[in-house]
Design brief:
By secondary structure, the protein is an alpha/beta fold. About 50% of the residues lie in helices and about 15% in strands. Strands 1, 2, 3, 4, 5, 6, 7, 8, 9 and 10 form a ten-stranded mixed beta sheet that branches. Helix 2 links the parallel strand 2 and strand 3. The radius of gyration is 21 Å and the shape is globular.
Length: about 350
């Protein structure tokens, strides 16, 4: 029977955490260990109480101060002892057969490195989420040259990054992976940050991997590292949609946009100096230019023309295209209209 470690980072959500744990315990394939990473909760997660309630498979790690979701995930993965690792946010749930279905795919094909898990939203804001997810999935499957081998299984080879480079749908941020594959992908990301920032150690580089969108960033590095992956195209991961999403408020949307640029800039700089990225330089450069252009478009429609000009110029410097030049003309006309 395959062994699985489920890692659940948590911060100040004790009741939702209990729901997440219950969904793991209700799996048709039991997890060997459930690693709770308490990322600075106040009061701290009560490890003894959780073990009494849920059993000996519960392990609790504690950060006295919050280190961020990416750090907590990595911390849990390092502590994992099982053949496979899966990640679950503390406010989300697994469908009952998720671990069994995903590990059976990995067990059946030793060359398969990881399985992405289909996502379905639940909660008061789930309608829009569930409407948009299939659109994003279809785009990735087409651009990443995914091959449907049966209705609930899509296989990807070395072209996956082409599909993910501009947008990473939620399903590609939820994975069940061989532990050594998780380590390989995470190691490349750390080395990329270390090299770009010219830091003496990977531990110092880890301090840079904070903030939003880190699950989507990890997927990009997986696209560089992995040559065979799969999408389990069933709702195996149940995501809570209760106004906690990035785009529920304008300020969050702006932070989301700027963080995407930050991540793409790092990815682009790594591609200029690391051999592992040599086949992807063009795609990464185009993606960074698009992220800058998207920011310019956003700021233009927010009436923030100075910021729009700054990001438009970065897009042009990165990849001058006719469409970007035409948008620059629009910005110029808008500027003169204000005079």
């Amino acid at each position: 029977m395959p062994s699985v470690s489920v890692i659940i980072p948590t911060l100040n959500r004790p009741e939702l955490l209990r729901e997440a744990i219950k969904s793991v315990l209700q799996q048709t394939l039991p997890a060997n260990e459930i690693i709770i990473v308490d990322d600075g909760s106040l009061p701290p997660v009560d490890a003894a109480k959780l073990k009494t309630e849920f059993g000996s498979s519960i392990k609790v790690l504690r950060n006295e101060e919050s280190q961020g979701l990416a750090w907590a995930r990595n911390q849990g993965a390092i502590a994992a002892s099982s053949q496979y690792v899966a990640h679950l946010d503390d406010d989300d749930l697994f469908a009952p057969k998720t671990l069994a279905e995903c590990t059976s795919l990995l067990e059946a094909d030793p060359a398969l490195e990881l399985v992405f898990v289909g996502v379905e939203g639940f909660g008061s804001d789930s309608d829009y989420f569930n409407k948009m997810q299939p659109i994003g999935l279809a785009r990735v499957i087409k651009q990443g040259k995914g091959r449907e081998v049966k209705p609930d299984l899509i296989l990807f080879s070395k072209n996956l990054l082409e599909g993910l480079i501009n947008q990473v749908p939620m399903a590609f941020q939820r994975v069940v992976a061989r532990r050594e594959v998780w380590e390989r992908v995470s190691k490349l990301r750390l080395r990329a940050y270390q090299k770009v920032a010219n830091l003496p150690s990977e531990a110092e580089a880890m301090n840079l991997i904070r903030g939003q969108l880190r699950d989507s960033e990890w997927a990009l590095y997986a696209g560089v590292v992995c040559t065979k992956t799969a999408l389990y195209n069933q709702p195996g991961y149940l995501q809570r949609c209760e106004r906690q999403g990035m785009s529920s408020q304008p300020a969050n949307l702006e932070r989301h946009t700027l963080q995407a640029i930050k991540i793409k800039t790092q990815f682009f700089r790594a591609s200029l100096s690391m051999q592992q990225f040599k086949n992807w330089k063009r795609y990464i450069r185009h993606s960074l230019a698009k992220a800058e252009f998207d920011a310019a478009y956003y700021y233009h429609h927010q009436g923030k023309q100075k910021q729009a000009w700054i990001h438009w110029w970065e897009a042009i410097k990165t990849r001058p295209t006719l469409s970007y030049v035409k948008f620059g003309v629009r910005l110029l006309l808008a500027y003169h209209a204000l005079d």
